[in-house]
Write a structure and sequence with these properties.
single chain, about 475 residues, alpha/beta, Aldehyde Dehydrogenase, Chain A, domain 2, 2 domains, seven-stranded mixed sheet, six-stranded mixed sheet, 14 helices, binds nicotinamide-adenine-dinucleotide
């Protein structure tokens, strides 16, 4: 690994106290790299660098910023293989998943190169006074970006691209399990023309202290976080002191509903995507699968046939569909969910046996007749385990699907579009996959309601998180 230091103000440097931490390869538990662990002093240095770069970056024309983002897209697209390899090495996901992530990550640069020139305002007239109301948008200020390990590239580019398009410099703290992909992105951004200090990367094992210190600095105006709801809550509390604008992409507990009139092959294919993309380590992963009683048997048979074909192994090898999970803790949690459900009466249809090999592997698993009190229905499974229940009534299933603190994404399959739209509207989720098992798209607003988050990433909306509206009252 070439880049293992902090990246501050366009320079590579060690942590101020010389501290480091190890990044493991989940496929064989070996040490992949030893990375500098940023300190509070380093966080202050990163904010100084961002602050120094802000004036120049915000005063570039939108077209200049757009051209740099476009170049970043082109460079990234030419190196998908390279990025996919690093993603697989540090995260574990299979090459096909990593290639998908790399392509998705690059697209944020393209989309926001197109959006950078479209930050719109408007002019109106005050109804009573006749004064003009001039509304325009300005970059919000320095943004702190905190990202998780499940998409080491995409969760970063989904924040960096809109921030840069808006004119904001950023300090990004990648997850400690997977900092290498983000570090590797920095030479690419330099080559694209991003000036020193506009993007700074601060890997750190002391996430709480480092991010907390940045939120205490009045120069920070945005905290954009993707990760667990538990950490998101803490950051919302911390952001309150300086009233920092929050953008929060948090946990999910997605329902996947198959109605009796659904195309069962399409639904089984959709569930493969919604459950197995990223080995289930996705906030969008189908977590609670509800199949209409009348079609349970044929649907589960079709789904089990697809799941049984998946090949598990080192994600770098050809023909592998399911790599290892990211770490021992995640693997053990998944194993616990399965054991818990089975001990409470769930039936194991496929998988469920932890292989006795090095690496954090867990096989594709299907549970049916999962009882309501199984822990996997309340919590994110974050692994390749499909937990299936049945239902009989539309109203009842909407109620059950909504019975969660989360509201990120829900999926439903039905042959009746009137029902599809009626149920979509009744579901309390920020995103709906209607006869689709994948909703993520750079051009669409990604995000949740309830305790799944605040704000949106992607689409037109994504840039708004990094902008402030200003209104000028005048007459002419
Ligand atoms: P996590 O919350 O443990 O960590 C996320 C990031 O926050 C990491 O960089 C981590 O180092 C940092 N962090 C941890 N404690 C912190 C603290 N006290 N202060 C500041 N930063 C801190 O989440 P994770 O385990 O890396 O990722 C999995 C979670 O992310 C899941 O809950 C998943 O649903 C969620 N997720 C959500 C989305 C979304 O868009 N809604 C996307 C991907 C993942």
């Amino acid at each position: 690994m070439k880049h293992t230091q902090l990246y501050i103000g366009g320079q590579w440097r060690d942590a101020s106290d010389g501290g480091t931490f190890d990044v493991l390869n989940p496929a064989d538990e070996s040490v992949l790299a030893t990375v500098a662990s940023g300190t509070v002093a380093d966080a202050k240095a990163a904010l100084d660098a961002a602050d120094a770069a802000f004036e120049d970056w915000r005063s570039r024309t939108p077209r200049q910023r757009a051209e740099i983002l476009r170049k970043a897209f082109e460079l990234f697209s030419a190196r998908l293989d390279h990025f996919a390899r690093i993603i697989t090495l540090e995260n574990g996901k299979a090459r096909s998943d990593a290639m998908g992530e790399a392509a998705y990550s690059a697209e944020f640069f393209r989309w926001y190169s197109e959006e950078a020139v479209r930050a719109e305002g408007h002019v109106g007239m005050a109804p009573s006074s006749g004064a003009r109301i001039v509304v325009h948008q300005k970059p919000a200020g320095i943004a702190v970006l905190v990202t998780p390990w499940n998409f080491p590239a995409a969760m970063g580019t989904r924040k960096i691209a809109p921030a840069l398009a808006a004119g904001c410099p950023v300090v990004i703290k990648p997850a400690s399990e997977t900092p290498l992909t983000m570090l590797e992105l920095m030479p690419l951004l330099e080559e694209a023309g991003v000036p020193p200090g506009v993007v700074n990367v601060l890997p750190s094992r002391s996430s709480g202290a480092v991010v907390g210190a940045m939120l205490e600095d009045p120069r920070v105006r945005v905290i954009s976080f993707t990760g667990s709801t538990e950490v998101g809550r803490k950051l919302l509390h911390a952001a309150a002191d300086n009233v920092v604008k929050p953008a929060m992409e948090l946990g999910g507990n997605a329902p996947f509903i198959v109605f009796e009139d659904a195309d069962l092959d399409a639904a089984a294919d959709g569930l493969m995507l919604a459950k197995m993309r990223n080995i289930g380590e996705a906030c969008t992963a189908a977590n609670r699968i509800y199949v209409h009683e009348a079609v349970e048997e044929p649907f589960v048979a079709k789904y089990a046939e697809r799941m049984a074909k998946l090949k598990m192994g080192n994600g770098l090898e050809d023909g592998i569909d399911v790599g290892p999970l990211v770490n021992a803790e995640t693997r053990d949690k998944v194993a616990h969910f399965v054991d818990d459900a089975v001990s409470k009466g769930a039936k194991l249809r496929l998988g469920g046996q932890r292989p006795n090999v090095k690496g954090f592997y867990y096989p594709p698993t299907i549970l049916t007749a999962v009882p309501d009190n199984a822990e996997c229905l309340q919590d994110e499974i974050f692994g390749p385990v499909a937990a299936i229940q049945t239902f009989t009534d539309e109203k009842e299933i909407v109620k059950r699907a909504n019975d969660t603190i989360y509201g990120l994404v829900a999926y439903l399959y039905t042959g009746d579009m009137r029902r599809g739209l009626r149920v979509s509207e009744a579901l309390e989720f920020g995103m709906i996959g209607l006869n689709r098992g994948l909703v993520s798209d750079p051009a669409a607003p990604f995000g949740g309601v309830k305790q799944s988050g605040l704000g949106r990433e992607g689409g037109k909306e994504g840039m708004q998180e990094f902008m402030e509206t200003q209104y000028i009252s005048t007459t002419w």
